[in-house]
Structure formats: structure tokens, C-alpha cells
Design goal:
The structure is a homodimer.
Chain A: H1 21-39, H2 46-53, H3 58-64, H4 67-92, H5 97-108, H6 116-128, H7 133-160, H8 168-190, H9 197-211
Helix pairs in contact in A: 1-2, 1-3, 1-4, 1-6, 3-4, 4-5, 4-7, 5-7, 6-8, 7-8, 8-9
Chain B binds a DNA duplex (30 and 30 nucleotides) through helix 3.
DNA sequence: ATCGCTAATGGACGATCGTCCATTAAATAT
DNA sequence: ATATTTAATGGACGATCGTCCATTAGCGAT
């Protein structure tokens, strides 16, 4: 009711009228993420954010209640965007667990998800999670979701390979893959130019192949 | 001449007189690192640092020229401390390259090097490296040194295994190990309680074992 | 046309930021 | 004992921080 009120609504996007709180919220979150990516979370101030968004000072307090809550909302939005893309790759992989794992790896290391902007933002939120509970919550949520997707697939692979359901193989593979992907993001962050996605994918797959002989070619 | 001036000098450490610039510098760096570990680099201010160090405001400008230079000095000090410990483990491993790799893994994942304080500090400096050149320089230095140690050992292992000197095996193993260790630090940072050093070591060794059949048991 | 609601504005506020410097005090040299 | 040197002090400074609120302005309802 907040969204689809006006009589006629064009297909693409809203008309740019002066009163659009939803649009303002999105603009503030986007400006926050861009500012963090560009100058770091330490130098991301209220003034810089509203300047980039082209809005007035009071908007942050009005729509989010304060800077910290805006940061938390931005972290949540960023995490959701990540899974929107990831889920698409996973759904495209079908039901085969090996294909799912491959899709997760390819997605996580793709230009769409792993780039200068996103690695900087993610790194910043990771650090801020220690002192901002809102950020910590959604940071943990992302980890849990990713963990679940990967672990489910590995457990099925282990089961298909004759391992007992509760074998440590699946949990070891899950842990190793998550750590490897996290490390890739850090490596990309500190040296994006020298980073090769193909090599990265190859390395990750070779690690998994060591745990599941015959799989992951 | 600044250090060994006074006539008699006790063996252990300096007397705690009121004038000791070297001691003041160390106190400021230590207070900086502790503050970053405790409340994050974003909230680490000049006031908090000098309060923790028990010194006066002017000391930072006097000894380092400003806050940014103090941060850079703290990053350098932190990196040096890391290698002091790592080098000890490596030297204790002797000349066997496989033992050297094992030592690097055990050292990097040891309580001494990987703990709540150090992972928080390292994560903060990684993020700050994007906007502070001094930090970026010493951050890159650490990576280069670690890369060199690991790569040298892997190349020798590859050579002993009959691979050609310039095979990609060694560089792949180096890349994979570094990424894995970096990922472990991130994983520890976001969930120190659930982290198991033994499992971590096992995972890392299993990855390497997949690249060098018969080695790393 | 008027009213009511609320998104939006932008300046005021006290607090705190990092820097700088006049001053004090401790150690050394004369 | 006195002078010189320099580590150390702590307050002043303007800038900027995040928050808040009195006010304006856009939109639907009456």
C-alpha cells in the first residue's frame, strides 16, 4: 500500500516526484555503500553520505534514526544483494549437488559478486561487526546461509559416495571451501590487479577434488 | 648514542626515569594497537590513545608527526612482531622444505600469532591500507615476505619430486596456502569461539597433500 | 479551495575530532 | 652553579562530527 497506491504506474520505475520515501531510503543506502567502497568506513560520515545522495541532512535521522542504523540497513541490503545473485546461479545449477558447489564457487568468484567495490564494503562491515550489533547480526546471517547451502550439497555428495550421513567429510569440505572463498576475497581486496579468477577457481576445485576422489574432475 | 649514553646500564631494561623518548614511542604504539583491537580503528582517536598510554596529547605530534604516521608505525611494528615469531618457528624447522611449510602453518595458526587481538588489528589495517599509504606499504611487505618463504619451500619440494623448476605447481600451492591461511584468520575473527586450531591445521594440510601426493601425510 | 499529514529541508547545537604551540621540566654540558 | 638542550605537558584552535528540531513544501482527503 505504500508502494502501489497511485492510479497508474508505468512498468519500469516510479516517476520522479518530490515525495518518495522509499526512493530516499534506497538512495541513502546506495550512497552509504558507495562512500564506504570509495573512502573507507572510517571516513564515511553523515555529511559525505547525504552529499553523495543529494539529499538533506535530516533524512538519515528521519528514515533510519541515526547513522549506525543506516549502516546496519546498508549491511543488510548488501547481504541481500549478494544472495539474490548467488541464488540465481545455484538455481541454474539444478539438483546435482556437485553442480551446486561449482555454481557457488563460480558465483562467489564472479565479477558480479567479487569486485573492488564489494570486497571493500564486505571487509569494512566485517570489521565494524565487532562494535555494531546490527551489522554483526546480518553478517552472521550471510555466513549461516552460505554455510547451509554448501553443507547440504556436500552431505549429499558424501552420502552418494557411500560415506555415512554424519561423516566429518562433508563438514570438513564445507569449512575448507568457506575459508578458501573468504581468503580469495581478502586476496582480491589487497591485490585486485594481479588476481586471476580462473586460477582461483582452479585452486578451489583442486582442493575439493582432494577430498572427493573422482569428483570435481 | 641516544640509547647507550648513561654510564651504567643494568642488563634487563632501562630505569624508569621521566625522560625516555624510546619508551614513549613504544607506549604509544602499544596503546594504539590495543585500542584498535578493543574498539576498532574507526573509534580509535588521539584522545583514546594518549589516555590509554597515560601520556599527554602533544606526544603523538612530537614523536610521529600526526595520527596517520602513528598508525603506520603501529602497523609496521605489528608486522615485525609477526615475523619475529614466525621466523623462530621456521628456523626451528631446519632445512627440510616440508618441515618449513608445516612450521609456517602451525605458527600462523598458533595462539601466539592468531588470536582475537591480532586478527582484529590485522583486519583493521587491511581495510585502512586503501586510504593510508604508510599502512599499505607495510601490509604489502608482510605479504611479500610470507610469499617468499612459502614459495621457496614449495619450489624445492616440487624440484625434489621431479617437477621442472618453473612448474606452476609451486606457485599454485603457494597461492592456495596463502589464501587458506588468510581465510582462516577471517574465519577466526568472525567466530573465535567455534574455531578449532587442530581442525584448521588438518584442513590446510589436506589441501596441500592433494597437490603433493605422498607428502604431508 | 482548504485542511491535514508527513516527507523533506537545512541550520543550530554541544561534543569531539586532530593539530599545533607556548610553556614546563628533566638531563646534559659548560 | 649555570646554561643549553630537548622530552614532555596540556590547553587553545578551527574544523567537523552526529543529532535534533522548527520550518517548509508536496500530496491526498474533505
Amino acid at each position: 500500500m505504500v508502494k502501489s497506491d497511485s492510479s497508474l504506474e508505468t512498468s519500469a520505475e516510479k516517476r520522479t516526484t518530490k515525495r518518495d520515501p522509499e526512493s530516499s531510503r534506497r538512495a541513502l543506502i546506495l550512497a552509504t555503500l558507495d562512500t564506504i567502497a570509495e573512502i573507507g568506513i572510517t571516513d564515511t560520515t553523515v555529511s559525505k553520505i547525504i552529499q553523495r545522495a543529494g539529499l538533506s541532512r535530516g533524512m538519515i535521522h528521519l528514515h533510519f534514526g541515526g547513522k549506525n542504523q543506516l549502516l546496519a540497513a546498508a549491511a543488510r541490503s548488501f547481504g541481500e544483494s549478494y544472495f539474490e545473485v548467488l541464488d540465481q546461479w545455484v538455481q541454474g545449477a539444478g539438483d546435482d549437488p556437485e553442480a551446486i558447489i561449482t555454481a557457488v564457487i563460480r558465483a562467489d568468484l564472479s565479477e558480479t559478486l567479487m569486485n573492488v567495490r564489494s570486497t571493500r564494503i564486505w571487509h569494512a562491515f566485517r570489521g565494524a561487526a565487532n562494535s555494531n550489533e546490527g551489522i554483526a547480526a546480518c553478517s552472521g546471517t550471510r555466513d549461516k546461509r552460505l554455510h547451509y547451502i554448501i553443507n547440504t550439497a556436500f552431505r549429499q555428495i558424501a552420502r552418494d559416495s557411500g560415506e555415512s550421513e554424519e561423516s566429518t567429510l562433508a563438514s570438513d569440505a564445507t569449512f575448507g571451501l568457506l575459508v578458501l572463498l573468504e581468503g580469495m576475497w581478502v586476496d582480491y581486496l589487497s591485490n585486485a590487479d594481479a588476481f586471476s579468477r580462473d586460477v582461483a577457481i582452479s585452486i578451489v576445485r583442486r582442493f575439493i577434488a582432494g577430498l572427493f576422489p573422482g569428483r570435481f574432475s
